[in-house]
Structures are given as structure tokens and as C-alpha cells.
């Protein structure tokens, strides 16, 4: 097992949209999920037919993590986890331009400090996870050339409270996904589309990272600096296609290094879920019985489904191929900053299979020489899954009405692996009905 075994979360997904006084927290995402454009899109997909379904697609109270985090920390610790990837709630901290909420800053700073005291020895902080204050959206979001400076101000205020607490900072989460979905596809949020706008946003995000890195290291010089980079395993028998896909995955890291030098990060966080497949006319199928692959060996996978009906492939083998490729190209020590799949219900045994397979693939990567430091399983709690509405990614079920937390079978399985020091024969035997690969020899 990797030394860091944690969970991750994003503020928009787990924080309430309301303050203690009942006022709404104005944010770009809070605006968009209530927009007429989104409501019309949900109706067109047959997803919005009554009031119950509307509640499903609005974050509202979410998990109330802003006040319930101590009990969540204790629950994760009780299941032998030692890390948590946090996210600074920019709209709460910085509700008006130039104004910072001192109570919110104190709450943010308390999380890594108290977490370490409790035993969560490896906290991580993401400073931008796609959510920004409404005022920032009003002045153009990342189109505004001053936005990296406003982001630097956020990090400065946060670090003044956090102080010299060395930890992993995944400063920007999935910059290419954020830019792609908002500047190329307009799947999320309303912005002008185009390749120029896409590149401009990536450059602004890179500048924001460089500014934030300087602030963090001036306060906590031993910090680990990274991004949380979304990429895929590109599984194809067409060399030109593989090179195109691989270069696409490397692009933002290369841009960041070009703008800030090779020391612009000293760690690399990878958010890994999928593979992309391409061939010369062969069919592709996905299911519990394995999936056709263009690799020399068969790939074992499964299909899961988001709550809006969108199907995902569960492919834990990405945890071997992608870290190996990025280690060989860049040489940065690697954290898996996200990996997980949505399985409905507390009895999420199919997620147990994915975790078991993932543990094996991580070990395989280490055996191949990759400097893998840890993994933050996605996610710590069931949460609001962005455009898709309330989701089932969590290792812990959250009752939206009562806020009651209940560990899922996947968390119990992970706990048993951690207690045993790995996927031992005893653990395999105990969980065999749920983790055996159907087509394995």
C-alpha cells in the first residue's frame, strides 16, 4: 500500500450554499446550476420533470462540510485513512472584491492543523477547483487579465492563516477540463467559445499557479507544489493517434514549465479515471466480463453510471499506465489526486472490485520504478457532482435530509486492506465474492 491513503473533495460539491445567517453564497457555479439555460438543458434530456428532480440537480446544503468536517475526519481516521485533499472555498472566503471573511479563513486554516493533530498526517490543499465568487464572474472570470492577481490574493490570505504547515498544494484542479468544458464545448457555464479563448484561459491559469506557488513557498518553504492534472490512458493500436492523445495530455504541464521553469512544480498530481480507445475498425465493448483492448493483454473493466444516465468505464488499469508514462517523461514524484467511480447505494461491492484492482495496479507501477507517494481516493463523501447533480462517488453515504453519514462497503474493504498492510491472502479470501475478476485465470 502507498504511504499516503486519503480521500478528496471539492468545496462546491460538499459545502452548503448558505452561510450561517441563511444568506446565499454567490458563486459562478451557484448561478449556473440555477440558470434558465441549465434548466432547459435538463428538461431536454428528460431529467427535470418534477420538484424532487430539481432538488437533485441543485447543491443546496450539500454535505455541510464547512461545519461537519471534524466528524468526517474522525470517520475517515476510524477507517485507517491518513490523508485528505481539501479545497479553499473561494466564494465564501472572498465574497466581495478586496474583502476577506476572517471566520472562513480561520475555518480553512483549522482543517489541516487539526487534521494533523487527529492523525490525518497528509493533508493537501487545492486552491482553485473550478468555483469562484460571483463578483469574479461579473468581471470576466479568467478572461480578465487581473484574475491571476485576485487568485494570488486569495492564496496569500489563506497562507497567512495556515502558516508554515508543510503539505501538498495541488494549486489548480484539472485546468484543461475546466477550460475545455467552458471555452470549447460550453457544457458548463456561459462563456465565449473558441480556441483563442481556450488557450487564453490556460495561460491565465498557469500564471495563477505561478503566482500562488511563490506565495506558498514564501510562507511554507518545504511545501510540495503540484497541480491536479486530469489525463487518460490512451489505449490504441494507431501510433499517430496515440502520439496525438499523449501530447494533448502533456500540453498543460509543458505550458506551465515553459512559463515557470521545471521547478514550477516539484510533485505531480494525477486525476485518473478513464482510458481512451482507438482502433482500425474493431468494435469496442465494456462490461463486467472485460473489455476489448488494443494492448497486448486483456483489460478488465466494468461499467458504472452517473445519476443523469451517463455511462463511465471503470478501468483501474489507468493507475499503472499513466503514472508510468508521466514518471518516465517528467521525473516528478507522483500522487494520485483523484481516482474513483460512482456506484449507487451503501452496498457498493462493485467499487470494492475497482479498489482491489486499483491497489494491484498501483503496486505494479511501483514495481516498475514509479515514485508514487500516495493516493487520494475520490471521493470522501457522496456529493454534488457538478452538472450531473447529486452523485455516488463517495466512500461514505450522506443522507441529504438528515446529513447522517454511513460508511459504504468500499470504505470497509479499504480499511481491511490498510489494516492488513495490503491485499493479503486473508483479505482476498474474506472479500473474494466481491473482488474476483470474472475472467481472471
SSE order, one letter for each helix or strand: EHHHHHEHHEHHEHHEHEEEHEHEEEHHH
In the CATH classification, which architecture applies? Alpha-Beta Barrel
**Strand-residue fraction?**
15-25%
Percent helix, as a range, is 40-55%
**In the CATH scheme, what's the topology name?**
TIM Barrel
**What's the average pLDDT?**
90
Instruction: Count all strands and give the number.
Output: 12
Quick one: overall form?
globular
Distance between the termini: 24 Å
Main sheet record: 8 strands, parallel, barrel
**The CATH top-level class label:** Alpha Beta
Pick out the low-confidence regions.
283-296
Strand order of the largest sheet: 1-2-3-4-5-6-9-10
Give Rg in angstroms: 21 Å
SS content category? alpha/beta
The total count of helices amounts to 17
Total individual domains = 1
Q: What name goes with the CATH superfamily? A: Glycosidases
Highlighted features:
44% helix, TIM Barrel, 441 residues, globular, two-stranded antiparallel sheet, alpha/beta
Describe this entry's structure for a reader:
With 441 residues, the chain is α/β, with parallel strands linked by helices. The chain has one domain (4-435): Glycosidases (TIM Barrel). 44% of the residues lie in helices and 16% in strands. The strands form three sheets. An eight-stranded parallel β-barrel has the order 1-2-3-4-5-6-9-10, surrounded by six helices. Strands 7-8 form a two-stranded antiparallel sheet. Strands 11-12 form a two-stranded antiparallel sheet. Strand 5, helix 12 (239-260) and strand 6 (268-278) form a beta-alpha-beta unit. The chain is globular and about 55 Å long. Mean pLDDT is 90; it is low at 283-296.
Amino acid at each position: 500500500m502507498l504511504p499516503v491513503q486519503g480521500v478528496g473533495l471539492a468545496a462546491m460539491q460538499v459545502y452548503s450554499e448558505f452561510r450561517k445567517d441563511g444568506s446565499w453564497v454567490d458563486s459562478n457555479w451557484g448561478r449556473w446550476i440555477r440558470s434558465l439555460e441549465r434548466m432547459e438543458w435538463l428538461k431536454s434530456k428528460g431529467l427535470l420533470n418534477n420538484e424532487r428532480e430539481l432538488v437533485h440537480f441543485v447543491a443546496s446544503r450539500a454535505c455541510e462540510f464547512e461545519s461537519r468536517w471534524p466528524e468526517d475526519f474522525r470517520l475517515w481516521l476510524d477507517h485507517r485513512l491518513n490523508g485528505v485533499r481539501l479545497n479553499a472555498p473561494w466564494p465564501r472566503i472572498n465574497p466581495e472584491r478586496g474583502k476577506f471573511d476572517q471566520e472562513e479563513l480561520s475555518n480553512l486554516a483549522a482543517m489541516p492543523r487539526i487534521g494533523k493533530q487527529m492523525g490525518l498526517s497528509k493533508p493537501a490543499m487545492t486552491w482553485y477547483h473550478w468555483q469562484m465568487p460571483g463578483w469574479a464572474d461579473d468581471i470576466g472570470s479568467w478572461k480578465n487579465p487581473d484574475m491571476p492577481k485576485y487568485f494570488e490574493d486569495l492564496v496569500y490570505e489563506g497562507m497567512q492563516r495556515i502558516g508554515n504547515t508543510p503539505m501538498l498544494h495541488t494549486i489548480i484542479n484539472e485546468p484543461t477540463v475546466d477550460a475545455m468544458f467552458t471555452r470549447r464545448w460550453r457544457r458548463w457555464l456561459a462563456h465565449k467559445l473558441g480556441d483563442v479563448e481556450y488557450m487564453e484561459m490556460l495561460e491565465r491559469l498557469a500564471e495563477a499557479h505561478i503566482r500562488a506557488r511563490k506565495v506558498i513557498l514564501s510562507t511554507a518553504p518545504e511545501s510540495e507544489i503540484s497541480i491536479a492534472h486530469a489525463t487518460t490512458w490512451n489505449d490504441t493500436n494507431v501510433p499517430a493517434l496515440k502520439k496525438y492523445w499523449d501530447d494533448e495530455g502533456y500540453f498543460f504541464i509543458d505550458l506551465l514549465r515553459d512559463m515557470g521553469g521545471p521547478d514550477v512544480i516539484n510533485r505531480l498530481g494525477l486525476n485518473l479515471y478513464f482510458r481512451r480507445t482507438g482502433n482500425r475498425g474493431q468494435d469496442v465493448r465494456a462490461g463486467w466480463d472485460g473489455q476489448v483492448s488494443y494492448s497486448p493483454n486483456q483489460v478488465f473493466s466494468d461499467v458504472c453510471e452517473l445519476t443523469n444516465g451517463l455511462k463511465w468505464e471503470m478501468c483501474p488499469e489507468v493507475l499503472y499506465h499513466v503514472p508510468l508514462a508521466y514518471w518516465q517523461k517528467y521525473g516528478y514524484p507522483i500522487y494520485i489526486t483523484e481516482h474513483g467511480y460512482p456506484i449507487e447505494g451503501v452496498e457498493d461491492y462493485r467499487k470494492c472490485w475497482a479498489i482491489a484492482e486499483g491497489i494491484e495496479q498501483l503496486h505494479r507501477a511501483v514495481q516498475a520504478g514509479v515514485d508514487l507517494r500516495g493516493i487520494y481516493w475520490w471521493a470522501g463523501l457522496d456529493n454534488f457532482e457538478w452538472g450531473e447533480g447529486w452523485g455516488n462517488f463517495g466512500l461514505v453515504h450522506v443522507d441529504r435530509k438528515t446529513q447522517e453519514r454511513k460508511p459504504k462497503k468500499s470504505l470497509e474493504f479499504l480499511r481491511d486492506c490498510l489494516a492488513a498492510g495490503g491485499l493479503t491472502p486473508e483479505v482476498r479470501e474474506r472479500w473474494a465474492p466481491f473482488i474476483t475478476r470474472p475472467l481472471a485465470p
